[in-house]
Each structure stands twice: as structure tokens, then as C-alpha cells.
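Extended Data, panel c. Modelled sequence:
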Amino acid sequence: MYLAVLATALTGLAVSNAAPPINGYIVPGTTGKLGDAAIVEGNPVGVTYTAVLPDRPTTDIRGTIAGTSNANGTGVNFNINLSGLPDPSLGPFMYHIHDQPVPANGNCTATLAHQDPYLRGEMPPCDPTQPQTCQTGDLAGKHGNITTSPFQASYLDLYLSTVQGPASFFGNRSIVIHTSNATRLTCANFTLTSGNSTSSNGTSNGNGTVTGSNPVPSAFMNGAAAAIVSAGAIVAGLAAFLL
């Protein structure tokens, strides 16, 4: 019986430490170390930040990602218009707001990790039915991957800000488009294209707004998530023994 318990626990560890597919193994309720993302209110009307994908010899992807303050100040309306995606076998394609801007040399790797002020990490993948538990910058996770070319999408994201200052602000960051294996295909910085984003009377509902963004390396967060799942596997094995 003891050997059966040990085998159960080790099997759970092996499954949890296996490299999951980029779209697989959603664990409902997974949230950040600082809690769920807060709903952002008070975004100033008329403020738009737009990222225009540049001409690059390495890709034909072109288009814009624009985020405009919702008319009632709560959240941001995004409009996505893309074309030139590569062979569908490389998809579905993902896109995220990354923590750092693209440097002058255009290196997409320098944008670092996703915008993630609540320290959730990338794994397990975002549960789109619980967007408050996802990374704030995980637009594809919350609203869907890029599945066609050309691609268009419009949606409201409640957890991003057009006001400079809070960590939910995306206007000083970048957008990155990936293949299904997370290879970075192209990237661009958001720039202010309409309105004034320096002031607001707004607040944030939920667990509060983090005032600084300190990206945590994905390897650390992935390891933490794996450890949590591994612990769950051990507990499951012990429970089987007790029963």
C-alpha cells in the first residue's frame, strides 16, 4: 500500500513538471501573489494609446493595437487590426502587453515579461472566464488568440489604465506578437495618439492598485506554479492512502 501511495505522488509530480502546451492545463482560480487584478475606474475620456507594428524584413505582420478609455471611465476599449500573419501551423498566435518598451534597436526580447503588477506569472495559463485572475497584460489569454489573417477584434478590458502612474497603465509599454511556442515575431511601443493621460479622478475597485511594476522572471513564476501543482499531487497521493 505504501508503494501505491508513493507511486501516486510521483506520478503527480511527473505530470505537473512536464512542459505544458501553451494553451493547456488551466487551473481555475489561479491568481497573483498580490491578489486579483483591480477593476480600473476613472480613465479620462478620449485618451487613446496606439501601437503601430513596424516594417520588418523578418515578418510580414502589420497593423495596429489601439486602446481607448471607456466612455464611462471604467476600463479600456481595445481595437485590434492585424494582417500578414505567417503560416497557420505556427499558431494560434498570441499577443500581450509587455512590461518594458521596445528599445531603439527594435529588439523584442528587451521588452521582458508580460505586464504583471499582481505577480501572477504566465503558468498555469489564464482562465478567460476569470479575467481578474490573469496577468493584466495577457490580452490573448483574456480575450482570445489571433486565429485568422487578417484579424480584427474589439473588446473592453476592465483591468488596464490610460492614466500615467499606476502599474495598470499600459501607455509606456509595448505589444508583442508570438507564435504558439512563444517565439516573438514582432513588437511595437504604445504612444499617445489622443487626449491627456496625466490626470484622473478615478480609483480602482477590488484589491487595490499596485503603484509600481516589477516584472518577475517567467522562470521563477513558472517554477512557483509547478511547485504548487506538485504539492497538490502529493496531497492527492496522501489522501488516496488515507482513504
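The CA atoms of residues 36 and 233 lie 24 Å apart. This feature is highlighted in the accompanying rendering.
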